[in-house]
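Q: Got a minute? One more chain.
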Amino acid sequence: MPNPLKYNKKFDKLTDEEKELLEINKQSIADFVEQSPSVSDVNYATRNAHAKTYAIAKGEFLIDKNVPEELQQFFDKEKYDLMIRFSNAHLKINKTKKDVPAYGFSVKIKDETGDLIANYPLVNFPLFPINSVSVFLKLFTSINRFFIKKWSSFSLMMQIVKVIPSTFTGSFLKNMVKLWSKRNDFLLSFDYHSVGAYRLGENMIKIKISPKSVNKNFGKKLKVKDALENYLNTNDFTADVFIQICYNLQDQPINRLNVEWKNSPFIKIGEIKINKNSLLDLHTCENEMLSFNPFESKPFFHPVGKIQKLRDEAYKVSLQTRMKINKLLKYR
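A: Always. Here it is, folded:
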């Protein structure tokens, strides 16, 4: 096995132009969150991505006894407590029966004292269609402005056109076909991925969660939220947790998110388990205000890469604006 490629801050470095675009994007996020109650027709401010919560549950992360020796220093306990949020990626809360099958599986890992170790916002599509930070920021800003009626649909379409060329990779097209074939499958039957890379000490990794023995047709006639609640109230859920390690940038690129990593085997590091009847009340203020900013993690578990770097400021702005608007929610 070759030696892993070590983390370097250069993977995260933004240009001056990208920093300026980020400031513009942050303002668009704040504007969107402020107007999100009217956008989604709810009585609270929502996130500006993954606005819809399907469920929140407690779980456990059980460490595999056969974790490679060189990785054992990061997993020195037999198990860790988890808080898990299931969501839909859309900026707007869709109240109809049918949701676009773009799901989130966000994990908060805590130690035995309740202190945060790491946040991992995972999704059911392993790739990201944009490698350019500038293109992404302009698109994301235009989407926010479109929803709050500050930009026309034509302006948004012009930004979307710039993204299309980066979707024409074998990896991306293959996974799009796979997602389309599974579009009606049960939320818990999907694999979930970190998309970008994360640190594991000085190593750089990607993460995948693969469910065990979940019927893809479960709750087919129910809304996604109802099917998920029904399953978690009547079944235990378990999923294997795997990582891939970055050994070289040609096979495992850090800042090319539209291609899959190759020549890096999946290493099982443990299992996620949610016991039945572990659902929490998703309507409480504390649970609605949960943040899964991966930069709140211990530094040696932080995200890696330029697109990933944007998450820190974006999550902070979104949370701060939501807190400002929702601060009295818990007293209602």
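A: The longest strand covers residues 52-63.
Q: Perfect, thanks.
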